[in-house]
Amino acid sequence: MTQQALKEALSRTVKGIQDNPVMSRVVFEAQTALVEDVRCTGQVRHFAPIVVDEPPELGGQDRGANPVELLLVSLGACQEIMYSAMASMMGIQLDEVKVNLKGSLDLKGLFGMDPSVPPGYQKITYETVLKSAAPEAELRKLIEAVESHCPVLDTLVRPIEVSGKVTINNVVMA
After folding, report:
1. What are phi and psi of 115, to 5 degrees?
2. Fewer CB atoms inside 10 Å of the end CB: C or N, the chain?
3. Is 103 helix (H, G, I), strand (E, B) or coil?
4. Would you say 110 and 59 are in contact if contact means Cβ atoms under 8 Å apart?
5. In this structure, are strands 39-43 and 167-168 parallel, antiparallel, or unpaired?
6. In this structure, what are the phi and psi dihedrals at residue 173, rounded to the nearest 5 degrees?
7. Residue of 35, 37, 30, 107 whose CA lies nearest to 70
């Protein structure tokens, strides 16, 4: 898709939301299933299943990225998508967008060895690498737009409601 085609597609969506604000509310869905040991599959829309696994030292067979790695991929890919989308809307040509990410996790939390250590990431850092001939002032506006509107970044830095339930043998647990 060309930058102009992307801009037109996004503009149509924005116009549709302006004309019918209810269109702005969307729900994304995914299904996952444990396959074997710690290997799982994830299903999204009509795409081939995503294989999720752990490295051998965490009991897996290393057949796919693990969930915390996928979280990093989600953040990086969302940033790249937002750069592409926002740049097309702002008329900025980007020659390259890459994101390098690192997540620091203490396995003592994962294994319940220290109650003071959370099981998830304690810190995530990323470096976005942009290549563009656009003026620095325009690129700074682009960076601000992306950093303030990236859904995955927002989800990670803002407290959100997460709820769940467990069903055992067709009975929802209270």
Report:
1. -65, -15
2. C
3. strand
4. no
5. unpaired
6. -80, 140
7. 30
Q: Strand, coil or helix: what is 19?
A: helix
The domain spans of the chain are 30-64, 66-156
CATH of 66-156, one of 3.30.300.20, 1.20.1070.10, 3.40.50.970, 1.10.10.10: 3.30.300.20
Name the nearest CA neighbour of 93 among 134, 124, 145.
134
Nearest to 82 by CA among 171, 2, 142: 142
Helix, strand, coil fractions of the chain, as percent rounded to 5: 40, 20, 35
Please provide residue 169's backbone torsions phi and psi, each rounded to the nearest 5 degrees: 50, 50
Tokens 């081939």 -> residue:
48
Q: What is the pLDDT of residues 43-82, one digit of tens each?
A: 999 999 999 999 999 999 999 999 999 999 999 999 999 9
